[in-house]
Each structure stands twice: as C-alpha cells, then as structure tokens.
Design a protein that fits this description.
Elements: H1 33-47, H2 51-63, H3 96-109, H4 116-130, H5 150-156, H6 164-172, H7 178-185, E1 192-194, H8 199-203, H9 217-226, E2 236-238, H10 250-256, H11 263-270, H12 274-285, H13 287-302
Helix pairs in contact: 1-3, 1-4, 2-4, 7-12, 7-13, 10-12, 11-12, 12-13
Bound molecules: protoporphyrin IX containing FE and calcium ion (2 copies).
One calcium ion binds next to α10.
Length: about 325
C-alpha cells in the first residue's frame, strides 16, 4: 500500500535517509517485484547485451530531470512536452520496450502497485548486477510524475564535450559531489556512444581543426575509421572497448591510457581537478573500491527528489499519466 511511505523529502541529495523511500516498500504489496524485473531483464539482456547499459542510462536521465519520477517515460501529449525529444535523449535513449514489458507483467501480478519510477530504478540495479557489477539495497516507493520537462532534460544532463567544471556544477545541482561524478561516470564501463557524441574530439576539439591532444594515438586512428569527418554520425563505438558488456573497472584503466571515448570521460583525469584525477587512479587500481562507491552513489542518485506520499501517482501505463 502506498501509505507505507510518507513525509516530504524536500530537496535533493544529502547523504542520510532515503527521503521516505524504503527497501521493503513492496514487501507485502508486491513481494515478487524484483524477481519479475530480473527475469525480464535476463531475457532482454540475453537478446541484446547492450540493453543493460541502455537501462542504466535511462535511470540517470530520469533522475537528473525533476528527480527519479519516470518523467523521462512520458510521451508527447496535449499537456506533455516529452523529454524523449531533448538533445541528450533524441535518437539515443533506449530501453522503453523493456520497461513496458516489466510494467505489463507487474500489472498482472500486483495491479496499480509498482510505479514506473521504481521499475526504472530496479532495472538499473538489475542491469548492473547482471553485467557483473555491484548489488545494493535499493530504497523504493517513488511515485510517478504527472509532468515532464523538456527544457530540464536539455539543461540538466551534461553534454559529452563538458569541461570538468561543467560536470561538477551539473552534478552539484543534483546534490552529487565529485566522488559521485567519478564513480557514476564509471557507468560507461558498459554500452556505446554514437559518432556524433565524440566526433569533435577527432577533428576539431578546440576550434583549431586539431584532434584532442589527450587522445592516445592508436585509439585516435581507430576511432577515425568508425567516425569519419563527414557522415556516419550514428555509427557507434563502445565507451569501454576493453569490456563493453562487462561491468568492471576497465573504464578507468582506459582513461589512464588516454583511451576514454568522450571528453567528459577523459577530463575526469586531465581536467586539473585533483579530487577527480585521484579517484580515477584509485578506481583503476582497486575495483572493489569503485564498486562500493558506485553502489553508494547510485543510491544517492536514486534518492533525488522522489515523489512520495500523496504526491504524484502510480501510472497504469508508463507512457501516459492516468
Ligand atoms: C558525467 C556525465 C555524463 C555524460 C557527459 C554522459 C554522456 C553520455 C553520452 C554522450 C552517451 C552516448 C549517447 C549516444 O551517443 O547516443 C552516454 C552513454 C551512456 N551513459 Fe552516460 N554520461 C554521463 C554520465 C552517466 C551516468 C551517471 C551514467 C549511469 C550511472 C551513465 C550511463 C551511460 C551508459 C550505460 C551509456 C551507454 C548507453 C547505451 O549503450 O545504450 N552516464 N553517456
Ligand atoms: Ca525525472
Ligand atoms: Ca567494462
């Protein structure tokens, strides 16, 4: 019953409690919720290993816009300007059908109980675990928004060519610090990016028609074959080419070697901010340290401005408000 979670967890971030969210939220109302999520994920990821990455990213793009409220799942309507049309999401964000499949199964077993926002959070955790990453106790009880924010999606989600200051500022606005920025960027240990997201680094990083000097030479040559100067914008390259479907710390090792794919990846090391530079090195050295911090940061990100109590609703269909 939704009445389990109450109180108003105003604001975002902070480290302590889950803003009224509880790991046991569905203990009586839908005890099978995580089993159902994981069983759908197993099939989806077997069909297409990249899906784990896509679902992890979906939760990030939800939480950074109005908090983790499934605003990202709403389609265009008379009252909704869909976030799916934003610069970071258009032609890029994916996994919606898997969320629909999970929602449909849950509506059969426990109708009207599990929010779309919690499904997205559970899918992100399940995808991490099924890819070999850490597990964590996930606070639940988020409710779904009746609104979306296309401008929020355009403004709050960092672009791939961000400077380190850019990244720190945009994370800080969500209550996330440098340790969260570096560990969560480690989500790029799985999945891919389109040529358009890294092309600038290959051909014109600083408006001087030169490549990014921090790009390792051989990697640079390889990337040019995937991503030519003109055309090929939708060609894809793994974010962590050493292990694109395994959740491990090789993403950080590659950064140390000048083989991070996005500017936003490489500047964690080269951006002249001691804290992030040091953490890249620590996580490259010590995978368990990365896993621990990633789990903590995912809980923190998942706690951004949830709708609880009588706020929001539990959508029947994740694409539309009730
Ligand atoms: C730090 C700032 C971040 C920036 C600038 C950034 C940027 C990007 C970009 C540009 C892509 C490729 C999109 C495309 O070309 O279609 C991408 C993919 C991805 N991002 Fe991020 N990201 C950031 C943080 C995060 C966080 C916090 C997570 C999750 C914890 C995450 C998880 C992913 C995943 C898993 C993919 C691959 C998705 C797929 O293969 O479908 N990213 N990111
Ligand atoms: Ca949202
Ligand atoms: Ca990896």
């Amino acid at each position: 019953h939704p009445g389990l979670g109450f109180g108003w967890g105003g604001g975002s971030g902070g480290s302590g409690g889950g803003h009224g969210l509880l790991p046991e939220y569905y203990l009586y109302s839908c005890p099978q919720v995580n089993d159902i999520v994981v069983s759908v994920l197993e099939q989806a990821i077997e069909r297409e290993p990249r899906m784990a990455a896509s679902l992890l990213r979906l939760h990030f793009h939800d939480c950074f816009v109005q908090g983790c409220d499934a605003s990202v799942l709403l389609d265009d309507s008379a009252t909704i300007a869909s976030e799916k049309r934003s610069q970071p999401n258009a032609n890029s964000l994916r996994g919606f059908e898997v969320i629909d499949e999970i929602k449909a199964k849950l509506e059969e077993v426990c109708p009207g109980i599990v929010s779309c926002a919690d499904i997205v959070a559970l899918a992100a955790r399940g995808s991490t675990v099924l890819s070999g990453g850490p597990n964590w106790e996930l606070p639940l009880g988020r409710r779904d928004s009746r609104t979306a924010s296309l401008t929020g999606s355009n403004n709050n989600i960092p672009p791939p060519n961000s400077t380190i200051q850019n990244l720190i500022t945009l994370f800080q606005r969500q209550g996330l610090d440098e340790a969260d920025l570096v560990s969560l960027s480690g989500g790029h240990t799985i999945g891919v990016a389109r040529c358009t997201s890294f092309k600038q680094r290959l051909y014109n990083q600083n408006g001087n028609n030169q490549p990014d000097a921090t790009l390792e030479r051989n990697y640079y040559q390889d990337l040019k074959t995937v991503c030519p100067r003109s055309g090929g914008d939708n060609n894809i390259s793994p974010l962590d080419f050493a292990s694109p479907v395994k959740f491990d710390n090789s993403y950080f090792k590659l950064i140390l070697w000048g083989k991070g794919l996005l500017t936003s990846d490489e500047v964690l090391l080269t951006g002249k901010v001691g804290k992030t530079m040091n953490l890249v090195k620590v996580y490259a050295e010590d995978e368990s340290h990365f896993f621990q911090q990633f789990a903590r940061s995912m809980i923190k990100m998942g706690n951004i401005s949830p709708l609880i109590g009588f706020n929001g609703e539990v959508r029947k269909n994740c694409h539309h408000v009730n």
